[in-house]
Amino acid sequence: xNITIKxxxxxxxxxxxxxxxxxxxxxxxxxxxxSLLLRELESELGFRLLDRNSRNxxxxxxxxxxxxLAVKVLDDLDNAVRSTLQLHERQxxxxxxxxxxxxxxxxxxxxxxxxxxRYPGIRVHMLDMPNEQVLTRVxxxxxxxxxxxxxxxxxxxxxxxxxxxxIQLICPRTxxxxxxxxVTWKQVLDYPFISLPLDFTVRLQADLRAxxxxxxxxxxxxxxxxxxxxxxxxxxxGLTALPSYSTPLLSSYGVTGIPVQDPVxxxxxxxxxxxxxxxxxxxxxxxxFMAEFMADRG
Length: 298
Known about the structure:
The structure is a single chain. This protein has 2 domains: 5-88, Winged helix-like DNA-binding domain superfamily/Winged helix DNA-binding domain (Arc Repressor Mutant, subunit A, Orthogonal Bundle), CATH 1.10.10.10; 95-268, D-Maltodextrin-Binding Protein, domain 2 (3-Layer(aba) Sandwich), CATH 3.40.190. Helix 1 packs across helix 4 and helix 2 packs across helix 3 (31-45). It is built from 12 helices and 11 strands. It is α/β, with parallel strands linked by helices. The chain is rod-shaped and about 105 Å long. It is 46% helix and 22% strand. Strands 3, 4, 5, 6, 9, 10 and 11 form a 7-stranded mixed β-sheet that branches.
């Protein structure tokens, strides 16, 4: 059986219009072309759908039973096409984003608030987690893309720059370094230092040694989470260094962030996606929006 959508539309239009003349106008075809479509449909089905005479056209008994089924097929098709077009036009859909803890708190809420105004039909699922877990979620298809500090790009992944975040010193508000006009890493390293996980510490050590062999970072304490590091600073266990996006978190702890020079250290924050796998329209719209948002911030 080879029934076409055009044949079904011809049948439904003739039934709704009550005449071939009006139905042909609605479908922008000739009456002869419309009649041919009806004959082909009836031939495929093996029964007559319409009883015709010189004065009017009406449904046959079998045609009356077939009519609601034909309408449902056409409605389902129209809904499917409309739904697909909405996805393509980024009017709806869902996105899963894996993001490090800091940027899940300090960056993404603002981005998602503005994004939601532009794309109210797109639902975003935030997966906030430690840095080292972000790429795993993307590789395992548990997230459409990930947001994390720059690192060597694993096989099967693509890394794109999103923005740069400057590393700042975190210390109590009453600390002697707060009163200085210029703070250098040489001065910072005279105090006990609280380090974050291994990859953060290794990169910080490398940046300092690249500036001067005399800048040796020997952490007094090591913790896993930035809020733990901030709490340790508050209670006098030492100083730490965090990206500038941590600033909104500091006031509640009674600590402050100050810029450090010699050297000035930045961290690139990247978007990680899987190679060879295109993003859904919804995910692509969020990724594009984030790039636009951060570019506007300079």
